[in-house]
Structures are given as C-alpha cells and as structure tokens.
Specification:
This protein is of the alpha/beta class. The protein has seven helices and ten strands. The structure holds 2-phosphoglycolic acid (PGA). The site of 2-phosphoglycolic acid has 7 residues, from loops.
Length: 246
C-alpha cells in the first residue's frame, strides 16, 4: 500500500484524475471503476478539464460504477446514475452504452447483481478502481459486518450511512434503506485501486484501514492485502496517521 498526502481535497482529486488520465493515455480501452459521493467530485472536475484540454479521450473506455440506491428512479436528483451524468458522463466522450451503473430498480435485484459482475468480467476486469471511504470504513456500500461479501449484492444501509448521506436528501426518511453494491471481491479484483479520502471526519476510518487489523468490521482494511493500492489523502484525512504514514 502506498499513501500520498496533499494540502487540499482538490489536490488529492487532481492526483487521482492524473492517474486515470495516464491510464487512458497508455490504454485507451481501459476499464475504469467509478465512485460517487462528495469525495471524488474534484477528481471528476479535474478529469473534465483534462478532457477539455484534449489530453484524455474516453471514446474507447468502459466504466463501471460501484453502487446505486435501490428504489429511487434513475432521474432522482440523488441517484448515482444522475450523479455520474452531472459530474462526468455528460462532459466527456464516454459512450453511453459503455458507462455502467448498477440497476437499483431491477425486478430481480440478485440476478442484476450477478449480471453486473459478469459484465465486468466480460469487459476484461477493472483496470483502475476509484474508491471513497465511509466514516464507518465502508467501501462501495459494503457496510461493517461479520464477513467480506465477494460479489455484487444487495445491501442494507447502516444507520451511520443513512445519517451521513441524508445531507443529499430533503430528509432522513427519504434516504433509501437498501443499495446494490460491488462486493469486496469484485473491488479487490481491480488491477489498481485509488482510495481518495478528504476531511478530518475520515481520519479515524483511514487510520483504522491503514493501521488496524484486517476485519470486516472495517471493510476498507482489506485493501491492505491488495498488491497495488494507493491512498490519496488530504491533511485532514491523514491527521491520525503518524509521520511514516502507517
Ligand atoms: P463521501 O462518501 O465521499 O460523500 O464522503 C464516501 C463514501 O461513503 O464512500
């Protein structure tokens, strides 16, 4: 595992964007794993700037998002389909049919989850996976629990995630209670993982992921066993790490 610490969230995001851009420059047909939430927004803004500057081309790329709420329409202001359209997809030349987000409205959600993993396999696997981290250490919507779930699956959101995400909704009651998420195995199969964490409210989860035991109670801790994982942190998120960073 490697760690880079930046002065600001914008710089951490920009670093992630540069790595994604370099990946696309080297391999234009790359498969990118996308994340939502407030953390990756600076990365997407930087990617859009690189696209506008003519430095990066998405026309042969494929993307798979980590997760989606269950039971809200794709057009809902808080859906991850809509988030990705607004933050990235509508600004770059990624082909709409190559931009995948789990279907939170599928009639058979378990079948949709299996099909999503199969689509990733068929695309050749994820080259670079972007991750945020929840204050409870979740990655995707893999919540603290007794096990690491391997494949894409339906999850019950924990009260802490509902609390954290209510800021995007009109009220806590409107936050969906379930989501469909890539599993830990699907995430760990990515060839390279970039976890972005910014803000002091992520410092404890980052510290536990970097220094604590590997446990499903802190799902991000499994990342330490991945052979190519990079944590991109701002000073706030890194504030509980010691000088050596781990
Ligand atoms: P955030 O969410 O970027 O909105 O803090 C990250 C996450 O929950 O994984």
């Amino acid at each position: 595992m490697q760690i880079r610490i930046y002065d600001t969230p914008a710089q951490a995001g920009e670093a992630a964007a540069l790595i994604l851009a370099a990946q696309l420059i080297r391999r234009p047909d790359s498969v990118l794993g996308m994340a939502t939430g407030s953390t990756p927004i600076p990365a997407y803004q930087a990617l859009c700037r690189l696209y506008e500057a003519g430095l990066v081309d998405f026309s042969r790329a494929t993307s798979f998002n980590l997760d989606e709420y269950i039971g809200i329409p794709e057009a809902h202001p808080c859906s991850y389909h809509r988030f990705m359209q607004e933050q990235l997809f509508s600004h770059v030349n990624l082909r709409p049919e190559a931009a995948h987000v789990p279907d939170g409205n599928a009639a058979d959600l378990d079948a949709a989850a299996r099909a999503y993993d199969e689509a990733i396999r068929a695309a050749g696997g994820i080259d670079v996976q972007i991750l945020g981290i929840g204050r409870n250490g979740h990655i995707g919507f893999n919540e603290p629990g007794d096990e690491f779930v391997y494949g894409c699956h339906v999850v019950q959101l924990t009260p802490s995630t509902i609390e954290a995400n209510k800021r995007f909704f009109d009220s806590e009651a409107e936050v969906p209670r379930q989501a469909i998420s890539l599993g830990i195995g699907s995430i760990m199969n990515a060839r390279q993982i970039l976890l972005i964490a910014t803000g002091e409210d992520k410092a404890q989860a980052v510290r536990d992921a970097v220094c604590g035991e590997v446990t499903p109670q802190l799902q991000a801790s499994i990342l330490r066993t991945h052979r190519d994982v990079l944590f991109l942190l701002d000073r706030g998120a890194a504030s509980l790490l010691d000088r050596k960073g781990a």
